[in-house]
Structures are given as C-alpha cells and as structure tokens.
Specification:
The protein is α/β, with parallel strands linked by helices. It has one domain. It is built from eight helices and four strands; from the N terminus they run H-E-H-H-E-H-E-H-E-H-H-H. The protein has a four-stranded parallel sheet with strand order 3-2-1-4. Helix 1 crosses helix 5 and helix 2 runs parallel beside helix 4. The radius of gyration is 17 Å and the shape is globular. The N and C termini lie far apart (59 Å).
Length: 176
C-alpha cells in the first residue's frame, strides 16, 4: 500500500509541475522550436559556467531562461544578448517542473543545468573523478556541444556585492 501512496504523491507532484510549466509558457511568446534553459540554485561556480556557455545554445533558436538563482537572474545579460526572456522561479516551482520532467520528458528543448537533475544524471561523476572539468561537463555534457572550446571569462565591474562575488571565478591555470 505504501508504494501506491508514493506513486500517487509523485503523480500529484508531476501534475503540479505540468500546471506550473504551462502557466510559465503562457506568460511567454513561444514557438515550437524554442529552447528553454533551467538553471537551478547550484553552487555559484556551476551557475557562472552555465551562463558562460549559454550563448552557443541561445543563438540556435529563440531561447528562454528560467532560474531559481537571483544572481543568474541579475547576471545573464553580461554573458549573452540572445536570451528572449528570463523568468525567476521559486524553488517549489522548479522542483514541481522537475517532477513532471522526471515522470514524462515533455520536451527535448529543455536544458536542465544541474549536477543531479534530471534523476539519474551521472555525468557529473566524471567531473568529481577528475576526468573532465566543470566547464566541459556543462558545455558538452549538458548543452550538447560537439566539442569543448573554452570561453573567455566574463568580468563584472559594477558595485553589486552579490554579483562581484558571483563573477569572482578563476580557472586553475589562471590562478597565481
């Protein structure tokens, strides 16, 4: 009986995710070929690189950014001008969408920037074991670029303290 309860809870959560997804889509002017990039509230370094390699994917089709990270929401325009819209999601909304996606992969145009989502993602282990770096994991593993080409780091020269910290990324080979 407890498995039925668990299944019911998962289906209910996925139904909520479907509702959240459709409500967000209704707020946007979308086409069938549009790309969606969901950047969760990961570590700052992960999200920095998610933005650094965003431009390649955003240029291919009309692209919409969804995020739970306030720094991503504030910083994405420093990395690309190819994003058509950016929506801020609550953690609950993002988790509901992920529950829906885990139950039913409703689009192949959704890029989920996370080391662990969707459920079963194991490519991050290559990074943890030192086989690839975080940039390569994001560029090739998530954004599906055919080859890894390092991007130039983006700098921030404003006075927002949160963004100053967010942009404070240094590659190992550049550190002294």
């Amino acid at each position: 009986m407890k498995y039925y309860k668990l299944l019911d809870n998962n289906i209910e959560r996925a139904a909520k995710g479907r509702e959240v997804w459709l409500n967000k889509l209704n707020a946007l002017d979308i086409n069938i070929d549009d790309t969606f990039i969901l950047i969760l509230n990961n570590e700052s370094e992960f999200n920095y690189y998610a933005l650094l390699y965003l431009n390649n994917i955003a240029k291919q089709n009309k692209a919409h950014l969804l995020t739970t990270d306030v720094n991503v929401y504030k910083a994405y325009t420093y990395f690309t001008d190819s994003i058509d819209s950016c929506l801020f999601l609550s953690e609950d909304e993002a988790q509901a969408i992920l529950s829906f996606y885990n139950l039913y992969m409703f689009t192949d145009k959704l890029f989920i920037l996370s080391s662990t989502y969707p459920n079963g993602r194991t490519g991050y282990n290559l990074f943890l074991n030192g086989k690839i770096d975080i940039e390569e994991f994001i560029s090739v593993g998530i954004y599906r670029n055919e080859e890894f080409l390092p991007e130039h780091l983006v700098e921030y020269h404003g006075d927002d303290l949160e963004l100053i910290e967010f942009f404070n990324i240094t590659r190992e080979e550049e550190a002294f």
